[in-house]
User: What shape does this take?
Amino acid sequence: MRIVLDLQGAQTASRFRGIGRYTLSLAKAIAANRADHEVLLVLNGLFPHTIELIRAAFDSLLPQDNIRVWLAPGPVAVNTGNEPQRQIAERIREAFLASLEPDVVHVSSLFEGFSDDAVTSIGAFAPLPTAVTLYDLIPLTAPHPHPAFPEYYARKLESFRRANLWLGISQFSCQEAISLLHLEPDKVVDIGGAADPRFRRVDLSDTERSRIMQAYGLQKPFICWVGTPGDSRKNVAGLMQAFARLPPELRARFQLLVVGKMLFGDVAAVKRLALTCGLEQHEVVFAGYIDDDDLTRLYNICRAFVFPSFYEGFGLPALEAMQCGAPVIASNTTSIPEVVGLEAAMFDPYSIDDIASKLQRVLTDDEFRTELVARHLARARQFSWDASAKRAIKAFAGLHAAAGARPTAATVYQDLITSTATVIGKKASPRSTIIATAMAIAQNHPDSRSGKTLFVDVSELAQRDANTGVQRVTRSILKQLLENPPSGYVVEPVYGTPERSGYRYAKKFTQGFLQQDQAVPEERFIDVRSGDIFLGLDLQHYVVTRNQNYYAHIRNLGARVYFLIYDLLPIQFPEYFRVGASEAHHKWLAVISQSDGVLCISLTTADHYINWLAENAVQRPRPLHIGWFHLGADLENSVPTRGLPKDFQSVLAALGKGPSFLMVGTIEPRKGYAQVLAAFEKLWDNGHDLRLVIVGKPGWKVDELVEKLRRHPKLGNLLFWLQGVSDADLDRIYRACSCLIAASEGEGFGLPLIEAAQHKLPILARDIPVFLEVAGEHASYFNGRTPEALAEAVTSWLELRAQNRHPHSEGMPWVTWAQSADRLKAILLEGDWYKVWPADGRDPRIRNGNDRTTQAAEPMPAFSQR
Amino acid sequence: MFRIARRLMQHAQLYAFAKQAVALFPFLDRRLRAISRTGALDAQARAERIIRVTDLTPHAHQVYLELLRVIKDLQ
Assistant: This one.
């Protein structure tokens, strides 16, 4: 049986309330108890910031491919109009569900979408066997004051009645629906509910107890209340009045803690209410929304938990508190007695005297409190999500058996086009709606291209080509991936720009790269679908930071996003880089650290990156995978550049006249050129007949050194500086020299060491970790930053060489670009990762439970970044 | 920042539309930011500028053409 769970109840503002908790807990239990059944979760893409956290919640329960996201043109909230979009969105969602060919669809929370973008219709597009969770029918008896609400609720009830199965959360909710809506009793099943196991008894030390009290401004033992303070049904006013009626000496010993998400206007109103009830300001503490860990602690240390609600479909906060061993007293109405199950713990919520009397007893009678705790803990054990899930699955099976064969999705796409076109035509919708609808349908119903796509970012290479080592790696890896794509994948080079988010197909670049001669098609934005991979191979800081939301978007859709890290040098050596380089690198790392994984070009770089993660306390909803691989070093496969500098032949001739030391790389402070030149000046002064060859173009912060090189008296005699050397000619220089000096203070990899080894050229390297990793015992090492230290190292090396006792480099292991790319593919597709940075379940974009998707007054994410 | 937020609040309907457009298709955000500074445009004109046909992916463009064809047929 294929069970499709619509989890919008865990996406809307309901996620801060009982419905959200219930939705998530039941779905997790269904996933855990699915046995041979297939479970798919379906999420609404109009709540983008909720998706990663839900994916994280199911990370160990379901394959991520079983979490599907659909898109629709928004907004669709009823209270601000949006009728055409809502109708289109209902059809789009139902068509998406139909395309999954479900045996049963379960809608976790149908009565959503009045003031948010939930879409929860039943039967607007095609009939599907549908079950709905039945929480309560409060709006039926106590209508919402908004003028648009009655029509909205009536329409929702029509959908509700079209369901084939109703899963009640309590006996009370089932009976109420049967009597008020005249549902067939045998199609209404009480599956109950439970509290999350994280709500449990914990032993808190005195320090921890003080910390939590202090964190919430509590100065005395306290009475705890949890709910939505602005919701009169929750009756926080009743508790405040009852508290005010306690004897003054008793009242003075306690504070009242009000926990729950409050909207902007609610805070002042609830504070006024407290004053009206006769309470002084210091007697009531408003904690707002708090996370489950702190809530568990507060349940554990409260003197009493009071649940005075007039009406509940279940009463989850009471059960959570009971499970934590709190002495709970609660209303004797609706479903609450089913949960609490103890007459002595009940009061009449409409009688302030009754509440006050029970409150006084629980605060003063130790024996009563002890008995409550014991009875509550025993009672709480009778509720379990596993039991509820098993009852739900059994009910689904019954529905499936009655519904018969699974509906097919053969005509869904065409039917959807016709259906949405009809709505658009009738409402004379603007072109932007048609475009947005097309975008959504295209995303929900991918084209029939076979296989998945590996998108390879070549932004720098395709548009500018800074021609650094990074672009050399990009060219070489891309060549391998295009020639030998991963099994089941098509490789597509893509590029982004700093001007706008999103990536386009790099058609023109690819044709040039592959030396094809065809008409270049229009470079449109890329079609990304679930299962695709985006690989950030090239390096353009501004393109990556610009696309932070885009990566989150395609990850929401089920694509995986990975990046290469070449080094952390601008952070490790900020003094060697341009002003702002370190900050730009930090920002870049922060963005890529929210991807699925990073691949470092050496073990050393991977370890440096892990240190950076720890230093910056990076938070993740899901774990971050970290891998490393070595770059290739075979020149014939590195897409070499060609060209010949002036005087090249005379340089080669000069190198053959005596020992020649080679340095390769851009001239920049980190590379140690100044130290090497100073060391050789000393050696020359001491009469050593040595040649120093520098191959590299001037970089940054080296004006003085470059000027010195240009005017150096030994230039062209014992000192040679070559710029713009092609890879092929570098090959000839390697052959002509006696030793490579690798004096850099920090590198991501160390390709010149391998290139030297390929030419059997001995190596004298600084003893930094990455050189030790790459060259091991196949190189000589030096340390120290003074010219004298290096001059001594060169002299020692020359003495060893004269005796042929110097380390030989030819045995140094290295890989080809084909092997390098194979390793990269193995990490990406076979999960051969080095380490995993753990998840802490937090999304750094969301603070204090508030994201930016549910509060219209807040700026949109794109604005908030600037 | 505050001025932009206030202006957006004054056009709540467009804002909601734009917000969702950006949520769905994040590459639109920069253009939207520019549009938010042009107070003279009416909501519809702004919406038309937010999403363009050139923003469509190849598959979405096919769907778009198909929608247009069916809409025309139904008329």
